[in-house]
Amino acid sequence: MSAEKIKKLAAEYFNEIQNIRQHIHAHPELSFQEIETSKFVQQKLSEWKIPFTPNIAKTGIVAILKSNKNADKKVIALRSELDALPIHEKNNCSYASQNAGVMHACGHDVHTACMLGAAKILNELNAEWEGTIKLIFQPSEEKEPGGASVMIKEGVLENPKPEMILALHVHPSMTVGKTGFRSGLYMASADEIYITVKGKGGHGALPQNCVDTVLLASHIVVALQQIVSRNAYPIIPTVLSFGKMIANGATNVIPDEVRIEGTLRTMDEPWRKVVHQKIKQIAQGVAQSMGGDAVVEISNGYPCLKNDFTVTEKSRANAKKYLGDENVEELDLRMTAEDFSFFAEKIPACFFRLGTASADGSNSSAVHTATFNIDEQALEIGAGLMAYQAMQHLAV
User: Domain extents for the chain?
Assistant: First the structure.
């Protein structure tokens, strides 16, 4: 398949892909609440006569593209996400969020628009490829337990079972026209840490009558940092951060309880389990040594994301053919997390990045910020590249 033919169609469909992205961006919905977004995607699939199954994991969709000939030759999957974040958008653009306090600040609108664009291209070129492509429109990437895990439990990787899966993700530190890959470990696991520190509250002027929970909580947060600095094997990336501490006392009131909340990120699954135990041991030990107690709850989040070597290197080679060697970069390890890792645990996978910043430095605000936006030329590149990747992987 000629890359030029796909590029021509991507350019031809650009305005439609752009309109899709802007519509989704203007109407963001939170995790597992993507009702209107799901309906909009279904509308597009129906318009293009692409068969689909809705209501998987509540709002998820699976569409099926089959070639006119030899549809059973090989099955692959593509994935995008539907949900947005609880962020109030600060961009001043015609398609800014119309839902107060909700924003597509992680690019899921871009991913969905690119995958719909790729679907239209692949449908148009149906006679030029063989096999079956599953299009997975996934809800709730931003919220545990992760829409990917729920869709897998509901059978999204069965009937038919794909041999591999691909997904792209916006990368605002990379300019439009470029893409990035990394084989093997790429992103960290992510667990949520909740610690309730219990003591004896009372008057701040009479600390001798109290078991000071604020002091206990402070010692616990400091003590837990030794897990990273002194217990972790230095070559295993590990991050333990606490971003929330609620005392609800007063200037002269020591509360009975203090709540601490944080996140654990690492890139080694056995070590991850060890850290869980150490957090509990240290928190409880410090609290008890000072006359109090600590209840530790750890919510197991997304596992480490590992890109399959064979699929990723093939995808990298495909990208070089489509965009040129100079536009394909090596990605660094990231301590952020992705529930695409659940798919990567089940079948060979490749999660790659799409440059979205403008050459002049604009459109480079980080994801999860109120000013995140993209150079929309990335939509044409992303849709075409996904279509090309799918056809090249089916051709093997």
Answer: 3-188+304-395, 190-299
